[in-house]
Amino acid sequence: xxxxxxxxxxxxxxxxxxxxxxxxxxxxxxxxxxxxxxxxxxxxxxxxxxxxxxxxxxxxxxxxxxxxxxxxxxxxxxxxxxxxxxxxxxxxxxxxxxxxxxxxxxxxxxxxxxxxxxxxxxxxxxxxxxxxxxx
Length: 135
Known about the structure:
Elements: H1 6-11, H2 19-54, H3 71-75, H4 77-86, E1 106-107, E2 123-124
Antiparallel strand pairs: 1-2
């Protein structure tokens, strides 16, 4: 009873919210809206990450073996690939300059007719041995 102001009771404004109450309610609504937006954004990012982890990359990673090449192996690459293809259980053998899923050497010095000379578009560079796409 001590919280009630006799003047507010007399004027009939006891139940009406004051300016501070409207500001507080507005901030609570704003915080709730931001929370909902963040939850939706996290959900979208989570689903995109799951999609990229499960998408088909065009090859089966479980049946590929990657062997790093040093100078001596690189010089005898054709012989190495022929011998590797003869091994039991090996369907085919080929070579690339870099891992398929890593960031490799790149250049932005590629140009073509109509390209804006100020555009710096990066290109990944790979060399591939014949048969790499069948492998």
